[in-house]
Design goal:
Layout: E1 5-16, E2 19-30, E3 34-38, H1 45-52, E4 60-65, E5 68-70, H2 74-77, E6 81-85, H3 96-106, H4 111-124, H5 140-151, E7 158-162, H6 170-185, E8 189-194, H7 197-200, E9 205-210, E10 213-218, H8 220-225, E11 231-235, H9 239-246, E12 252-258, E13 261-266, H10 273-282, E14 288-291, H11 296-303
Parallel strand pairs: 3-8, 3-9, 6-7, 7-8
Antiparallel strand pairs: 1-2, 1-4, 4-5, 9-10, 11-13, 11-14, 12-13
Helix pairs in contact: 3-4, 3-5
Length: 319
């Protein structure tokens, strides 16, 4: 494998009975970058991560991580990766230091190396004075920081984070992401799943999963740039009425109310600003319509839009 590539997967698939949780996914993650998995619940994010780190055997496909064949060499891989989930996987009846000591022992670190590394992490992750505090008595943000410290105790080359910020407040999420950038600056590669658009925007590169399929892959700028000319802002005092009119126009994919405006996403072929003005004029609705910069939320809606399956009940699959 190319020395600049940390993860390469080809034709990755996983089925559970008759349900296809991951469907023929190709993936390439470069070293020393934050690669994001964005998708709704049931899109296959967690299932993909478990296969990539060797915790789950794929039904089909090839995986190479840090030059190792997975799942055949999963045991070797585990010495070089960290893994953190939204549950944080902490022992609530152990102290901060005891949690870190246990995780160091799991990684077969010597007592001397573990002691030095734990002292380092207590400072780096702002636990000075809290080493003897029980993990169960800490706030969500503190538990999150402790879980991350535990995941990197052995200085892994690659870190898998499965929706690690879903249970914490916005300030803790922001501080957590600063830590992630510090890790990549130090040489760590990170694959993180999220359903927060603001977090997705911070990734170096992003994959969007929907119903087990990879529907978009690129930098945030590349993905939003591909929608140039397809997003419009409609300013009107009759937002709800205008929305009903606009959604009937062929080519209008979505119309979301944002404050006192409507944000429109079109397919770029049928729905023009002129068509919208005419439709609103006929409905006696006064409005101003103009272009607006595409956002990652627009990208997400565009690539996960399934007009043909509207109203059809989706099968539930593992996330």
């Amino acid at each position: 494998m190319d020395s600049d590539v940390a993860i390469r997967a080809r034709g990755l698939s996983k089925t559970f009975g008759s349900l296809k949780a991951v469907d023929d996914v190709d993936l390439t993650v470069s070293r020393q970058q934050i690669y994001g998995f964005l998708g709704p619940n049931g899109s296959g994010k967690s299932t993909s991560i478990r296969m990539l780190c060797g915790l789950l055997t794929p039904t089909a496909g090839e995986i190479e991580v840090l030059g190792l064949q997975i799942p055949a060499q999963a045991e070797i891989l585990r010495q070089h990766i960290g893994y953190m989930t939204q549950q944080f996987s902490l022992f609530t009846d152990l102290t901060v230091r005891e949690n870190l000591e246990f995780l160091a022992a799991v990684q077969n670190m010597s007592a001397r190396d573990a002691r030095a590394r734990i002292d380092e992490l207590l400072v780096e992750y702002h636990f000075e004075g809290r080493a003897d505090q029980l993990a169960g008595t800490m706030s969500g943000g503190q538990k999150q920081r402790l879980a991350l410290a535990g995941a990197v105790i052995h200085k892994p080359e690659l870190l898998f984070l499965d929706e690690p910020t879903s249970a914490v407040d916005p300030e803790s999420r922001r501080d957590f992401w600063e830590k992630l950038f510090e890790l990549t600056d130090a040489g760590t590669t990170i694959l993180v799943s999220t359903h927060y658009m603001d977090e997705a925007e911070r990734c170096h590169r992003l994959a969007i999963l929907d119903r087990g399929r990879l529907v978009a892959d690129g930098s945030p700028a590349e993905l939003t740039g591909a929608l140039e000319g397809r997003t419009l802002l409609v300013e009107t005092e009759l937002q709800r009425s205008a929305r009903e009119v606009l959604l009937k126009i062929p080519g209008v994919i979505s119309a979301a109310q944002i404050g006192n405006s409507l944000r429109l996403l079109t397919d770029s072929t049928q729905a023009s600003a002129e068509t919208m003005r005419d439709a609103l004029h006929k409905a006696d609705i006064s409005a101003r319509i103009g272009p607006v910069e595409p956002s990652l939320e627009d990208v997400f809606v565009a690539v996960t839009h399934h007009a043909s399956s509207a109203g059809r009940k989706q099968q539930e699959v593992p996330s």
